[in-house]
Fold:
Amino acid sequence: MVLVTRKYQITIPKRVREELNIKAGDEVVFIKTEDGYKIVKADDIIREGVEVFKDIEKTIEEMKTGFEEVFD
Structure:
């Protein structure tokens, strides 16, 4: 359990910081889920976004090929 200060600040417990590899100066994002909120390092979100688009050109080519097969 953590205490929220008058300025709405909290201290992330050491165990959580270690598990998420959060260091001083890191930015974190609170993501709303069905069960509440999830804390994620901003760098991890960016990295995941880059991974999603890593093979985008291949995916686009596959889609074009699929459309050509259907509409030819």
Remarks:
- The longest helix spans residues 56-71.
- The chain has a mean pLDDT of 85.
- Residues 14-71 form one domain.
